[in-house]
Structures are given as C-alpha cells and as structure tokens.
Amino acid sequence: MPRLTIVVAATRNNGIGRNSQLPWRLSKEMAFFKKLTTTSPEGTINAVVMGRATWESIPKKFKPLPQRANIVISRNEQYELMSVDAGAPSTPVYLHSSIESAAARLVGPYSMERPLHRSFVIGGAHIYNATLALPPTSDTFVDRILLTRILSPAFEDCDVFFPDFLDDNGTDGNGRSWKRASFEELKEWAGFDVPEGIQEENGVQYEFQMWVR
Ligand code: NDP
C-alpha cells in the first residue's frame, strides 16, 4: 500500500496560513522542504500533492515545483493549471478533481513518466484534513508527518489551521497512535543532514520533527 507523507510547518496552535499565504518567510526552512521533497534515487521522482489554493499561493516563477511531479486537486475539472506559468516545461503537472483520483495516479503502474519514489502531501488545510482521514484500508494512507514546529512567535493571526492530529490520548481519534520519531530516525529517513535542535531565522524559532503512526 503506498504511503503518503505530510509536510507542514505549523505553530504550537497549528496555524499554517494567513491571507492565503505562509505567515512567515524562512529560507532555510524552504530549503529543507525542497531537499526533502526532491531527494530520490537516480531515475525516480517524488510527487507533491496540493490543493488548488496552495498551488495559487506559490509565486508563478517557482511553479510547477521543479524536479517533482506536481499534483493539484480542484473540483473544477476545467481549471487552467498551466495558464499561470509557462516555465519548467519538463516538470510533470497533473490536475485531479478528487483525492481518490489523485491517489489512483500515485498507485497506478503507468501513472508517472518515471517510477515514483515518495509522495508528499504539501497542503493546505483542506487537503491535509482529507488525506489524514483516509482509512488505512484505502489505496493510500498517511503514516508520516514531517512537521516544522514554529515555536515562537505565536503567529496568532493565522486564519488556516492544520488538524489537531493528536487527541488527548496521543492517538488519531481512530485508536492509532502517533509517535514522535527520534532525530536520528528523521535524518535517516530524510537521507541528508537535517539541522538538529531549535533553529532561528528572522526572529522565528522552529524545530524539525517527524511523527509516525
Ligand atoms: P488548499 O490548498 O487545501 O486548497 C483548497 C482547494 O482544494 C479547494 O478550494 C478545492 O479547489 C480543492 N479541494 C479541497 N478538497 C478537495 C476535495 N476533497 N476534492 C476535490 N478538490 C478539493 O486550501 P486551504 O485554504 O485549506 O489552504 C491554503 C492555505 O494554507 C494558504 O494560506 C497557504 O499559504 C497555507 N499553506 C501552509 C502550509 C504550511 O506548511 N504552513 C503548506 C501549504 C499551504 P476548488 O475550489 O478549485 O474546487
């Protein structure tokens, strides 16, 4: 069963966005995101799955996200993906009208130009919610969250939130436990030297974490 990995940066209150943008500008955090989502064995490619609003929040000159298969989800089957960008023509971009059909592309044997290595769900809140709710019996299932925890400031004016994936018992509400992996496990899974401990950029403190279930 293909596994999905969520990548998200969230405050202690799970704030992830404001006015359709990221509330912070963290270049080293962005570099981590890029390295994490592009690293794959020679000849393979990773996929990044995102909602239409997240796609639109990426500046034109940066999309499609290079060296990754971009999968955008919108209920509007006529949505003009490529009218927003003429760049990076060799980067595969696919539009899907449901999570289920996007998942079918991830599992299909001939679904990508190159064999797929990892599939990352990169936001926003709607897509995080929908993919976290996929049952373990479905074709795809989220079993890993790469969380950049924004420790301070609080960014209290966030208007979009990551779902609270840990209930009071530390489980996902269906009885399955989420556990925080060790930093060594995070580095090993990422496949590169992830900065350890509390990072600071532009007065923002944050930490790279990995959670698994
Ligand atoms: P999303 O990016 O989740 O996109 C929402 C859109 O996706 C919907 O309007 C719809 O498109 C489509 N969609 C959602 N669910 C489904 C479904 N089940 N089936 C088919 N289509 C679906 O938007 P959000 O507003 O939730 O999040 C955007 C915010 O999140 C921004 O502020 C962004 O900056 C932030 N963000 C933060 C991240 C972080 O790590 N901090 C990461 C990514 C985003 P349509 O209306 O076209 O039908």
Give a short summary of the structure:
InterPro entries: DHFR (IPR012259), DHFR-like_dom_sf (IPR024072), DHFR_CS (IPR017925), DHFR_dom (IPR001796). With 213 residues, this protein is α/β, with parallel strands linked by helices.
Question: What keywords describe this structure?
Answer:
alpha/beta; Dihydrofolate Reductase, subunit A; two-stranded antiparallel sheet; binds NADPH dihydro-nicotinamide-adenine-dinucleotide phosphate
Any overview of this molecule?
It is a single chain. The protein is α/β, with parallel strands linked by helices. The protein has one domain: Dihydrofolate Reductase, subunit A (3-Layer(aba) Sandwich), CATH 3.40.430. Helix content is 20%, strand content 30%. The strands form 2 sheets. Strands 1, 3, 4, 5, 6, 7, 9, 10 and 11 form a 9-stranded mixed beta sheet that branches. A two-stranded antiparallel ribbon has the order 2-8. The longest helix is centred in the N-terminal third of the chain and has 12 residues, at 27-38. The protein is globular, with a radius of gyration of 17 Å. The site of NADPH dihydro-nicotinamide-adenine-dinucleotide phosphate (NDP) has 29 residues, from strand 1, strand 2, strand 3, helix 2 and helix 4.
Give the structural class. alpha/beta
- Rg is 17 Å
- What is the level 1 CATH name? Alpha Beta
Give the termini distance in whole angstroms.
Answer: 14 Å
The overall average pLDDT, rounded, is 91
Q: How many domain units?
A: 1
Question: What is the number of strand segments?
Answer: 11
Along the chain, the helix and strand elements come as EEHEHEEHEHEEEHEE
CATH-defined topology: Dihydrofolate Reductase, subunit A
Bound ligands, named by name, code or SMILES: NADPH dihydro-nicotinamide-adenine-dinucleotide phosphate
Low-confidence stretches: none
Strand content: 25-35%
